[in-house]
TrEMBL record, chain A:
Residues 300-376 are annotated as: Disordered. Residues 307-362 have a biased composition (Low complexity). Residues 164-293 form the Glucose-6-phosphate dehydrogenase assembly protein OpcA C-terminal domain. This is OxPP cycle protein OpcA. Pfam families: OpcA_G6PD_assem, OpcA_G6PD_C. Residues 53-159 form the Glucose-6-phosphate dehydrogenase assembly protein OpcA N-terminal domain. Signal peptide: none annotated.
From TrEMBL, chain B:
Belongs to the glucose-6-phosphate dehydrogenase family. The keyword Amino-acid biosynthesis does not apply. One of its GO terms (cellular component) is cytosol. This is Glucose-6-phosphate 1-dehydrogenase. Pathway: Carbohydrate degradation; pentose phosphate pathway; D-ribulose 5-phosphate from D-glucose 6-phosphate (oxidative stage): step 1/3. NADP(+) binds at R65, D107, L108, K172. Substrate binds at H202, K206, E240, D259, K362. It comes from Desertihabitans brevis. Transmembrane segments: none annotated.
Amino acid sequence: MKIELKSTNSSKVASALIKARRNAGSPTMGMVMTLIVVTDSQGYQRAEKAALAASFEHPCRLLLVVTNSRTKTSGLDAEIRVGERVPGETVVLRMRGEVAEHPASVLLPLLLPDSPVVAWWPTQAPENLSTDPIGRLANRRITDADGTRQPMASLEHRARHHGPGETDLTWARLTPWRALLAAAVDQYPATFTAAVVEAQRGHASAQLMAAWLENRLGLQVEVKNTRGPGITGVRLTTAAGDIAITRDDGLLAEYSVPGQPKRLVALKRRDTEDLIAEELRRLDDDDIFEAAVTTLVRRMRREQTRKSGAAKAAGTKTGAAKKTAARSSSRKSTTAKRTTARSSSSSSGTAAPDAAPSPEEAVGTVDPAVTAPDAG
Amino acid sequence: MIDPDRPNPLRDPQDRRLPRIAGPCVLVIFGVTGDLSRKKLMPAVYDLANRGLLPPGFALVGFARRDWENEDFAQIVHDSVKEHARTPFREEVWRQLLEGIRFVPGDLNSDASFEQLKRTILELDEARGTGGNHAFYLSIPPGLFDEVVGQLRRHGLAEQRAGQWNRVVIEKPFGHDLSSAQELNRIVSSVFPSQSVFRIDHYLGKETVQNMLALRFANQLFEPVWNRNYIDHVQITMAEDIGIEGRAGYYDGIGAARDVIQNHLLQLLALTAMEEPTSFDARQLRTEKQKVLAAARPPADIDAHTARGRYDGGWSGGVKVRGYAEEDGVPPESITETFAALRVDIDNRRWAGVPFYLRAGKRLARRVTEVALSFRKAPHLPFTNSDTESLGTNALVMRIQPDEGITLRFGAKVPSTQMEIREVNMDFAYGGAFTESSPEAYERLILDVLLGDPPLFPQHEEVELSWQILDPVLDHWAERGDQPEKYHPGSWGPQSAYDMLARDGFAWRRP
């Protein structure tokens, strides 16, 4: 059943929800949470599709907040959907003008009693989630750096301002990769001397992967540019050779462990609905993500230092840079094969092992031009 | 350099996003041409791969008396996956699986066939890096277990070496009485140690078991009333609306009690009635289940507190169906029951005096499995008799199939000016909440086998305790040797089932 309300307010929406449920014979909804999706008129349909798909696993009251503060007239329109092949309840709240600046006043009366509140920003997210009016309503806040115009910069921003209950979908995109890597190390519990992540230039998840590996392995992890899509490979170097998972087509990966035959493994880049369903499975703080973004911040700082150091004195090299350079040179041949002409020409250690790595290549920085929102 | 004891730096107990992926291994299915294998096992293998839970370097070997090449078998797997898998078919997942699919044609009693099986497995260990880890799924009649297990031992396929494993999966029925169950266990355990033997009750998914445990032990609300002070009896039902579906060869001589009550319903009883385990590891759980099964006993007067029936011909759910005796392959002298009910008493402090009624049957009104706890009446009702005339008793129902969830029945006032109180249902469905599109029982089982997770499925002690409860009843029925009472197809069973509860002053709920 669908109810449309023009120029309405929260209490009318709440009554309409009750009415819609009564009309459906007051079925048991078993709704487990309120999911607030904050989006604009462009991102709205994709976000709705993903949220509805996720609500099959997590039946919820879905509040889709579509704001447009540019119009002069102020007002709230609502569209209520109950029992339309979707578990739970869906309310689209269109806020115009002044109302759009006070969305929390609309949302607070519509939260389900007691159960958790999750807020998700599929595209641009507020600067500070924990002081944002909608963010403050939620105990779990989900952003998506890949949905923004500058994924890398957005992820860095999130990393610097990480607060409890916050995660970013770039992290969920890594789960299948991380699971495979963990399984590989289960099988081959060696000590690692180096680790490299290979990915499309400017891919935010790749930086996060590198930060996670760096945090877990205690090694400086390098990110190398390839043609993509998304992450194309991760190599963990042991004395007997590399544990390597490589994926060139975004679908099927090749998995190799020293002393064992190469094998294929399906490693599909997942849709947003799978990612959001994964996020909703856990409503507590993600400590591992927190540790990874802390390392990410450290990596960024290191990068900053190196950049300014390189700018000041071209001849002086830091110890870390030397190490990185030496490592990259030892894998020269494999890297050369995998990287594109563009990136290998500018790629650091491969061209001249002695030179300090060009900062851009070693840690990979923002490149807004080359990003796909659904990358994983 | 490789140190197996070194903790994996990429794993962290806090990292609960990471699933456990099984290590590389070979799954060998005996009886691969059977229905179960095509409809359940192979699709489950694909679904696991699709969910990213199968290791790179997984191999599937089929063994059957067919003149097939690897490609023919791969085609069979492909078709059964396309038709029956739960998750969408994806080419790249299929390519991952296809690399490791092999077929070994042969007879279970032929040494040459097992030599070839061994060669195939060794070749896979090399080519796929499966590292000597093998799981043998015996999807064959129990009568053949002896042969297969013996062959595996003779050809060195059951040896337990450090760092490698060989496991075996067997399905219900686990024997047909206590002594045959013991014999079966002797055969299997002579070759495989008990932690390598996985007995599967595919009716009882791990998910269900965990749901029941969470309801009972994660809540403060239910435990205080979960005893004889508040509960007056418990009904455990497993009803199927189908008949024997042409499987007379399997079903005749087994019957509802052996097929379902011995394993499934007594497991549900154990989970409902057991004390709180000290932890949820499989061993503690088994200990508690064993304790309660050891305290359970069959009725003293078997004729009064059991019922057996057999479906007649007639109309069931709008379809005209044949009676059991007219089904193909059922011998005229058969006394097999298609409905069985019995009362079980549990002699411990928590449950003394609370009868547990178990019933299972085919061609009943609808497919349903549930455990219903019926509460005592309130000691005093401050209403007039006419107010509470239609008030029954409170009930807590754990629905297990087909719509898993919880129902609470309690009294509520009928909206009107008069005071009238009637029973209402409050429902919760797991189906909607939290299900990761409900992994099928077989997926969980196969994954447990490959991971070596101590199964929640019963080990032989529980199997034997269950037979101890059921054997006296089965013996008594066999002694009587008469035909089971007929019941209408699509009904809720024979009259004797109703009578057996009426004797105790109760009535079956309509599930």
